[in-house]
Amino acid sequence: MSDSARLMDSYTEMTEMLLPNDTNNLGRALGGAVLHWMDICAAIASMRFAGNQVVTASMDHVDFISAIEMGEVAVVEAYVFDTGRTSIDVKVDVRAEDPREGTERKTTESFFTFVALDEDGEPTEVPDLTCESDAEQGLRDAAFEAKAEQAEN
Predict the structure, then answer these.
(1) Distance CA 14, CA 2 (A)
(2) pLDDT recorded at residue 153
(3) Which of the chain's ends, N or C, has fewer CB atoms near its CB within 10 Å?
(4) How far apart are CA 118 and CA 66, in angstroms?
(5) Model-level pTM?
């Protein structure tokens, strides 16, 4: 394992077309489906960062800001913004995209914490987070600000 890893090494983006199996009776995304996508995306970001298997330790308060409508594309973005000795904090944002109209809007935001595991399934140390560019530092700062704002509400 390297002593440090870049924020952008963790950056992960997934897309999901909202289909009937993941909708409620209003034709909107089920909250559980969105949470599932967020957990997967955040886990991939954590694994890319740590170079190890990870498990979800916690998920902070989730803000469902706007509904995702049937036929829209859910774009899920995640990146590591902080670390502990064995833990990894990930910011996850979801936006809805209408590919026909070229529009998009933010729909969901949360923060996940993962623990890195070694081959025996025991917690293992993770690299230190580095931000080698202003863009990376900006993402990290934005995550801290959003987390602090969420804690106030």
Answers:
(1) 26
(2) 75
(3) C
(4) 38
(5) 0.94
Residue 88's domain spans which residues? 4-152
Task: Give the separation between CA 107 and CA 37, rounded to whole angstroms.
Answer: 13
What phi and psi values does residue 28 have, to the nearest 5 degrees?
A: -115, 160
- Closest C-alpha among 7, 18, 6 to residue 108: 18
Number of compact structural domains in the chain: 1
**What is the mean pLDDT of the segment spanning 95-122?**
96
Residue 5: which of 125, 141, 120 has the closest Cα?
Answer: 125
CATH number, domain of 49, equals 3.10.129.10
Question: What Rg, from alpha-carbon coordinates, does the chain have?
Answer: 16
Q: Which amino acid is at 82?
A: D
* CB neighbours of residue 56 within 10 Å: 14
Contact 88, 68 (CB under 8 A): no
Rounded Cα gap, residues 81 and 12, in angstroms:
13
- Residue 35: CB atoms within 10 A of its CB come to 17
Distance separating alpha carbons of residues 151 and 153, to the nearest angstrom: 6
Q: What are the tokens at 36?
A: 């599932």
DSSP 12-73: EEEEEE--GGGB-TTSBB-HHHHHHHHHHHHHHHHHHHHSSEEEEEEE---EE-SPPBTTPE
